[in-house]
Amino acid sequence: MITTFKKKIFASIIVSQLFLIGCSTHVVVISEHPIALIKVLPYKIGLVLDNSFTDYSFIREKDEEKITISLGKSQSELFNQTFNSMFQGVSEFTVKPVSPIKPIDLYISVVVEDLQLSLPRETSVNVFEIWIKYKLEIFDSKGSSIYEWIISSYGRTQTRFLGSQEKALHQATNAALRDAGVQIVTDFYEIPEILNWINIKKALKNES
Question: How much is the pTM?
Fold first, then answer.
């Protein structure tokens, strides 16, 4: 009698674990980011990406379902490649140096402010959606703040084109990353504070 009862408990535990495994989705984002074909500025950038950024994973547990999206490596590659295509050189740091380091002209620190996702069953449309909010803090070579820039990127995909939730979330996340890259390339030179910094650098060069 006791043995039968123990068997039933053991079986229920196994079933519960299998149910949890079946309701878990883990997406490791792998991307190929296109190189931006734009005019390269003759400045060197210090790109500050700490461990929370390079190892970033989004986790959501809702309605007995766990979704994990690991995109730290991919978003790090995106920002490295984007700024490498815009400037003469990029050096990566985990923290912003306390004292100036030559020949760095500009420091750009990037953090993930927020990531949100929407599944088809949660909306009235058959779409997976991803929103990523990045905060870029831009400093001059002496560490003085030039501008704080919030970038809100968006990606979506249609479920009918893909065979699984993992593939759909992977594609939507990649779309959001590409959107962030496009915004940086197209909007960076439209920021008045950045244009002013560039003009000052040009003026100093002409004087020397």
Answer: 0.86
